[in-house]
Amino acid sequence: MYCDFTRIQFTPDLVLANVLGINFFDMNKRGFEFRHGPVFAQVLLADGINRATPRKQSALLEAMQER
C-alpha cells in the first residue's frame, strides 16, 4: 500500500494548528497559503487522545467526519 502515514501524540499543550494545519502569509506570492496538518493523511495514528482537551478531541472527530 502506498499511503501517507502520520502520527499525532496528543498532549495537554497540543495546539489545534498542529492537528489541522495553518494558513500563513507567503510574502513572495503575496497571498495566503494553507499548510496541511497531519489529519490530511490517509492513515493517521492518534496516540493518547484521552489526554487531549475536549476541544481538540472534537476537532479530530469533526475532521474524521468530513473525510
Describe the structure.
It is a single chain. The protein is of the alpha+beta class and 67 residues long. It has one domain: P-loop containing nucleotide triphosphate hydrolases (Rossmann fold). Helix content is 27%, strand content 33%. It contains two helices and four strands. The protein has a two-stranded parallel sheet with strand order 1-4. Strand 2 and strand 3 (31-36) form a beta hairpin. It is globular, with a radius of gyration of 13 Å. The model has no long low-confidence stretch (mean pLDDT 86).
Task: Give the helices and strands, then pairings.
Blueprint: E1 5-9, H1 16-20, E2 21-26, E3 31-36, E4 43-47, H2 54-66
Parallel strand pairs: 1-4
Antiparallel strand pairs: 2-3
The percentage helix is 25-40%
CATH names the topology as Rossmann fold
Overall mean confidence score, pLDDT: 86
The helix/strand class is alpha+beta
Using the alpha-carbon principal axes, give the shape.
Answer: globular
Known CATH architecture? 3-Layer(aba) Sandwich
Count the DSSP helices. Answer: 2
Keywords:
27% helix; two-stranded antiparallel sheet; two-stranded parallel ribbon; Rossmann fold; alpha+beta; 2 helices; 67 residues
